[in-house]
Amino acid sequence: MTRVRATILAAPRPDELQVREDHVISFDDAGMITAVEPAEAAGGPVDLELPGTTVLLPGLIDLHVHAPQWPQLGTGLDLPLDRWLFDYTFPLEARFGDLGFAERVWESLLPGLLSRGTTTAVYYASTHEPATLALAEACVRHGQRAFVGRVAMDHPQGTPHFYRDRDASEAVAASARSIDAIEALGSPLVRPIVTPRFVPACTDALLEGLGELADATGALVQTHCSESDWEHQYVLDRYGVTDAVALERFGLARPHSVLAHAGHLADDDTDRLASIGAGIAHCPLSNLYFGNAVFPVRRALSRGLRVGLGSDIAGGSEAGLLPQCAHAVNVSRALTDGVDARLGPGRRGVDGSAIDILTAFWLATVGGAEVLGIPAGRIDPGHAFDALAIDIGPESGVEVWPEVDDWSRIFEKVVRGAAPTNITHVWVAGRRVGPWRS
Amino acid sequence: MTRVRATILAAPRPDELQVREDHVISFDDAGMITAVEPAEAAGGPVDLELPGTTVLLPGLIDLHVHAPQWPQLGTGLDLPLDRWLFDYTFPLEARFGDLGFAERVWESLLPGLLSRGTTTAVYYASTHEPATLALAEACVRHGQRAFVGRVAMDHPQGTPHFYRDRDASEAVAASARSIDAIEALGSPLVRPIVTPRFVPACTDALLEGLGELADATGALVQTHCSESDWEHQYVLDRYGVTDAVALERFGLARPHSVLAHAGHLADDDTDRLASIGAGIAHCPLSNLYFGNAVFPVRRALSRGLRVGLGSDIAGGSEAGLLPQCAHAVNVSRALTDGVDARLGPGRRGVDGSAIDILTAFWLATVGGAEVLGIPAGRIDPGHAFDALAIDIGPESGVEVWPEVDDWSRIFEKVVRGAAPTNITHVWVAGRRVGPWRS
After folding, report:
1. Lower Cβ count inside 10 Å, N or C end of chain A?
2. CB of B100 within 8 Å of any CB in chain A?
3. Residue A401's closest chain B neighbor by CA?
């Protein structure tokens, strides 16, 4: 049993800040929390006492990371989605046939995300089995909770000749082998995930085969869904139905499927996915760059759809989920008020769409855990001790002013204002996993 | 004469990246640059050679900072502008009657902004003369180039009883004394600026008196302009004309006036302000929180209006202009594409509104300098050596990958991805002004 003493800030519900000052968290050898008690009641020695100028938050769950796009993070955002893929992204991902290059990128990506507090990540790897397995191995080695998916894509029009699976049956076989290889690592933290890139990159035979693979293996599924005007219309043109309906038909919209973006989801799609138990990876920055519209997160939550947050590295330009929490609030404000002043106030936005920072943080923790069905996202008994500690002391750059600040304001300052360097400790399943600074 | 050797990245025009690898910058005792030459051609010893993994950028010019709102940065963004002012902001600003509190805030604000590379700031102080003078003194002491304005506000409906000038003539007199006191500091870096808060907070007599004060003293003017639906409509209701027209009538829209926000500016307002030579402080984040719409920066530039960037601390939730550059691109993407997917693709946004990171950085440097009419914003002879150095080395967190990165991508990664802690040196007028880390 390990015991950590800290002040815990969390959002157990979208509109609720939970403050537990000076508590002791106890977790067992598997990293599962067994008790969270006020220090006074808990008594006894602790293994680690965080400084009083530190707050402990539940670990951040990033539902959408394109691992091989790490080297282009923050760049190449000037093109629409279809051209961005062919001009920048597919050529970069194709490089991951070089295992040495892949391993160098993973050795940068994993510490980069862990040091920013991303305790769980859902990864698109590349089409390459060795690079995909190496990513899973890197997650095991660095101790990050992860879902790692070999990307399947075989469509002769939707993919370039230099970066695609040979055909549907070879793609399904490769994905099956990749699942087995990741399972064979024997890690309770790192799981395979079935990953059809998105409908435009996949033939019907591939989508069907991957649906069957998910059925046969019980692995979760991730893909993109109603991401942009172009992609949404493409699926309508190809099938006469939306992404949500098409994915359900192929057996890919399943309980805990992770569907990225969904900015163009209609209400009946929302209801359909909610009743299935699938979830959305809301990627707020990416909504602005490639989505052509903002995912209405408040509306989706009100209809019972599971939603978490994604950085969409590198369709979103920033790593780590604290900045994405702020972006989620920002884009929700844009959706509420609209953007074009030449339209009247009542005609430019969607009233009631705004979320606050608590809801955004809930998405990044509890929301993400519910999408994936994992016991994380909360610092409570029965959940894994996935957590990050943040320094808010006088030298931290997080400006706390007793004259105006209560815990609610301090929480907002932490989420909006903490720099990566303010994060002093990150744990996954009770193991310290960073940050390791020289 | 001082000589610094470095690699310089700058945006001399909105669409142009200028890369000067391994150059020597020479500046005189007044901090004015006399030469910028390739190191090989320059020859001779240098006073400072920046490491090869460092880039030098022109200093950032923040056109809109509410200094007394520093303690609430990143919080209290849940209310519309009028309620936000009365519920959160006026009570906080009223505290600056306490000079001790004011001095403590300034001692946090100045290092906070300088360490983030803000070499020039245009400040709203509070209504209090001592706090305003203390802010100007702090700027002199810390070496920041600044325009410091005592806030004038006397409208019995537009301000609270506990935080307003007694009447217009007392307000004008206080502002005149404040200008004299700041002038008396004798600093070439720190200038007074006439600061009517905004039309709703000022009586006609005050606006008129401050226009005359600007005329008499030659001091620049700053105020808010067409900020939100409410504020824009308020001015239309009060005068039957827009902010731009009203401000011109009161003698407040002048050459180099700094007009904040302007999201609701009509094209004829834009043309009017352009012909006057006034400029806009574009505050992208604040557009989302309080503006109800996004300022169309590309449109304004194309019509010849001067535009720079502002953080709008604390109506914007982040300090420093590098994040605001990214936000400026983000909100311009929202304006281009729109946000509400239920409207058709052609009906939800304003095509052609997107700017790229180069344009955003130009706004933060050259654009801001042109708004103010100051010899800064460029690392070129005849300009002050206002600059910041950023570490992009292997441990910096700025991910440079030779496989995919050229200077254009590195520049974008720096602007989008550098954390405050990556900034290693900041100079104003040739004097090192930070960051001072313990």
Report:
1. C
2. no
3. B71
pLDDT, tens only, B198-213: 999 999 999 999 999 9
Quote ipTM for the complex. 0.97
pLDDT-derived band of residue B421, with 50, 70 and 90 as boundaries?
very high
Helix, coil or strand: residue B123: strand
Domains, chain B, with CATH or none = 2-57+378-434 (2.30.40.10), 60-372 (3.20.20.140)
Q: Which two tokens stand for residue A270?
A: 């929302």
pTM of the model: 0.98
Subunit contact B72:A342, Cβ cutoff 8 A: no
Question: Is A416 an 8 Å CB contact of chain B?
Answer: yes
Q: Which A-chain residues 112-151 have CB contacts (< 8 A) with chain B?
A: 112
**Rounded-to-integer distance, Cα B265 and Cα B296, Å:** 9
Contact status of B299 with chain A (Cβ, < 8 Å): no
- Beta carbons of A341 and B409 less than 8 Å apart: no
User: What pLDDT score does A414 carry?
Assistant: 97
Buried b (16+ CB within 10 A) or exposed e, B306-326: bbbbbbbbbbbbbbbbbbbbb
DSSP A291-334: ISS---HHHHHHTT-EEEE---BTTBS--SHHHHHHHHHHHHHH
Residues on chain B touching A420 (C-beta within 8 angstroms): 397, 419
Q: Do A404 and B108 touch (CB under 8 A)?
A: no
pLDDT digits (tens, 9 = 90+) for A2-43: 999 999 999 999 989 999 999 999 999 999 999 999 999 999
User: Which of B289, B333, B340 lies nearest to residue A333, judging by beta carbons?
Assistant: B289
| Confidence category of residue B438, pLDDT binned at 50, 70, 90 | low
Would an 8 Å CB–CB cutoff place B79 in contact with chain A? no
Other Cβ atoms closer than 10 A to A266: 15
Q: What is the pLDDT of residue A346?
A: 84
Q: CB distance B397–A72 less than 8 Å?
A: no
Give every CB contact of residue B15 below 8 A, 6+ residues apart in sequence: B356, B358, B359
| A317 close to B (CB below 8 A) | yes
Burial class from Cβ neighbours inside 10 Å (0-12, 13-18, 19+) for residue A380 reads middle
